[in-house]
């Protein structure tokens, strides 16, 4: 029963003391600081966004309380459970066998992230990480239906995707089967071999590919952007492939399967080297190399040391890219437009390279400072500390 008066004050004081214990000062799921919610039966402290997912699990799995708003209904038993478990011990139990390839939510994860939702469901609902099991997404092969962005503005086409770790490839087909036999032969987790009967419409080399969630640009919560060289001899040119699934669990498992395949192919030991999120992306205005060129709106993506720009966020190919070096190599980033002959917008940025200068402009003071900081960080960072990307 909830306590009242002095008894309840003592419970709340103990709760605050438990919250200050090492490990509890950050959300148990995404590690954002200063959590204000708790799962009283699991024994963890949570941020507001992760607590929303816990609520959706149901009270039979997770029972949520606010540290600030529910002060009159806290009981000594609830606080004792949080004290005896806590974030560190809970994660040692529920996340004891998380595969290296599994991507975990970060403090800057978007509130409605499919990764946040599926990470929490995998931990407590499906209990995937309690034992050293070998789920299907770690078997080296995966196939399934995904919707791929077509040429039209809102065109998405159902395609059959097949990942083959042995061949180091991710292929997609018009359909699951057709009259023309394809030469690939896969072995699934059951040991049963099956053959593909389509000629692939496209093949992505996993060793050189990157994949990241793409909700912000596609509008689909369960979507991925896969970026890879545009075939052999692409000379640095890359291609974007946007896909989405009707199920959140499916798209997360596709990402983990790609990461696991790259783990095996590249033989790396750090999970953050398997795929990477873009450093920054957004619209900037850009003018050409001559003074007479006007300003045009472009979609920019900063991916490691590479700055690409596109006509729009869903374009398959970049218009151009800049491989950014360091200050020692003649690269620099200036606040403002350094060429006095050009119009000077309010939020201008000049990116200097040995070959030419790029003149950019953002639409707000906040974005201006964000891009300025991100670009300066690249030129000030040694090349070996921020490896050149796909």
Task: Describe the model.
There is one protein chain. The protein is an alpha+beta fold. It has helices at residues 5-19, 48-57, 76-84, 86-94, 114-125, 215-218, 248-266, 365-380; strands spanning 37-39, 44-46, 64-66, 141-149, 156-164, 169-173, 185-187, 193-195, 202-205, 210-213, 223-229, 238-244, 280-287, 295-303, 306-310, 320-323, 332-335, 348-352, 357-361. Residues 1-6 and 190-194 have low confidence and may be disordered.
- Unreliable stretches, pLDDT < 50, 5 or more residues? 1-6, 190-194
The termini sit apart by 59 Å
Structural category: alpha+beta
- Please state the overall shape, judged from the principal axes of the Cα atoms: globular
What percentage of amino acids are in beta strands? 25-35%
The residue-averaged pLDDT reads: 89
Multimeric state: single chain
Number of strands: 19
Pattern of helices and strands: HEEHEHHHEEEEEEEHEEHEEEEEEEH
Helix content: 10-25%
Main β-sheet, spatial strand arrangement: 9-6-5-4-12-11-10
> If you compute it from the alpha carbons, what radius of gyration comes out, rounded to the nearest whole angstrom?
25 Å
Discrete helix count: 8
Biggest sheet features? 7 strands, antiparallel
Secondary-structure topology with pairs:
Elements: H1 5-19, E1 37-39, E2 44-46, H2 48-57, E3 64-66, H3 76-84, H4 86-94, H5 114-125, E4 141-149, E5 156-164, E6 169-173, E7 185-187, E8 193-195, E9 202-205, E10 210-213, H6 215-218, E11 223-229, E12 238-244, H7 248-266, E13 280-287, E14 295-303, E15 306-310, E16 320-323, E17 332-335, E18 348-352, E19 357-361, H8 365-380
Antiparallel strand pairs: 1-2, 1-3, 4-5, 4-12, 5-6, 6-9, 7-8, 10-11, 11-12, 13-14, 13-19, 14-15, 15-16, 17-18, 18-19
